[in-house]
């Protein structure tokens, strides 16, 4: 019951995600048709029949072939349409001009929206964060299924997307150039932002009123990057963070991995070393009696931190995924978080912790040794990382999504199976006992019957050997010949 209430609470917090990102235009009338299914065909026909010139219809529909329906054995799929069937219905109703968006995991709890111009790959599909109701058992993980599909052909995603958001009209309209939208629903409300890739830029805005102060903090971090002469792709205008979209660029982690796979390991190491030297030089080293471990009440001995390099501007999300390497220069973006008096070594630790592929290609222990990162430092970094994550993440979202919750649910599911197995075992034992009893009864009856038969056989033998039987034998033969 508690989980159901939590689910409803989260849904209420983010239920407007599916439409609030859409750039509604003035002087255009929009007709929104939600939960489109076979029951709403007449409603679609009426809207299309009366649609004025240049007005548009926004259709939200579950996909009959969506991975969610496959994984969860949906019972209402007979009422749904697949993409081809929807396109046919739009055509016969004159809605021939349209654009498809693909929200995941669905239109009620939307985390990410893809388009034909920006389809997911194995990495970006992980933004499909699924929230679980208490009694919802999934036969397969949706993300794993999508990865299988993407391995075959990324265009297959259009067929198996969970849901559709369709912008359509009887008249040709100008594309809004939106390619991709994501929402940071795993965070506390005051840190939630929406990210929109549109044209040559990436736009970040507050996801709600509470998050506007977070946008202001990101602005300050951009100012710090500029002040420290660290190149950034980010700028801001009023309440919006704007980044230059590197359409064909590679983030530093992918650039490094490609170098290593091409046999250029020494060059890759040099690029990493140069980055850390630049950060060490520009983030302003400090010597202080109060550091980030003190702030978060993480206990340590003085000797545990003597080897660490504390910096004033601890932009702790300077991981390689947030850096582009362009013409020998590092360009930083997405720097939302900062802590004063933070160890530079902690940033190095996070680079490997949050990129498994990088860790597979580079010996992190070799890097740790180079920068004198010790086991006692790692112990402190793990605690600090947990504290920082707890500070920003939504416990409600985390509870409904994270592995611990799913493990707890499956644990209870298994316990129920064990109970059922025990009950079935008891019933089986009872049947066996009853069977044994019946067999014993049958055996006793059979033995009694056999005894009776033997008794009758003896009686017959006695009769056959009697004098009267022998005397009447000629008469019996005579009767037999008549």
Give the helix/strand layout.
Layout lengths: L1 H13 L2 H4 L9 E4 L7 H9 L6 E7 L4 H6 L10 H10 L4 E8 L7 E4 L26 H11 L4 H4 L2 E7 L8 E6 L9 E6 L2 E6 L5 H16 L6 E4 L2 E5 L7 H10 L3 H18 L9 H4 L6 H4 L4 E2 L11 E4 L2 E4 L9 E2 H10 L2 H6 L2 H7 L4 H18 L2 H7 L1 H62 L2 H5 L1 H9 L1
Parallel strand pairs: 1-2
Antiparallel strand pairs: 2-5, 3-4, 3-5, 4-6, 6-7, 7-8, 8-10, 9-10, 11-14, 12-13
Q: How many domains make up the coordinates?
A: 3
Binned, the helix content reads 40-55%
Low-confidence stretches: 403-414, 475-482
Strand content bin: 5-15%
What does this entry look like structurally?
It is a single chain. By secondary structure, the protein is an alpha+beta fold. Helices cover 48% and strands 14% of the residues. The protein has 20 helices and 14 strands. It has helices spanning 2-14, 17-20, 41-49, 67-72, 83-92, 142-152, 157-160, 212-227, 252-261, 265-282, 292-295, 302-305, 344-353, 356-361, 364-370, 375-392, 395-401, 403-464, 467-471, 473-481; strands spanning 30-33, 56-62, 97-104, 112-115, 163-169, 178-183, 193-198, 201-206, 234-237, 240-244, 310-311, 323-326, 329-332, 342-343. The protein has a 10-stranded mixed β-sheet with strand order 1-2-5-3-4-6-7-8-10-9, with helices on one face. Strand 7 and strand 8 (201-206) form a beta hairpin. Helix 9 (252-261) runs antiparallel to helix 10 (265-282). The chain is flat.
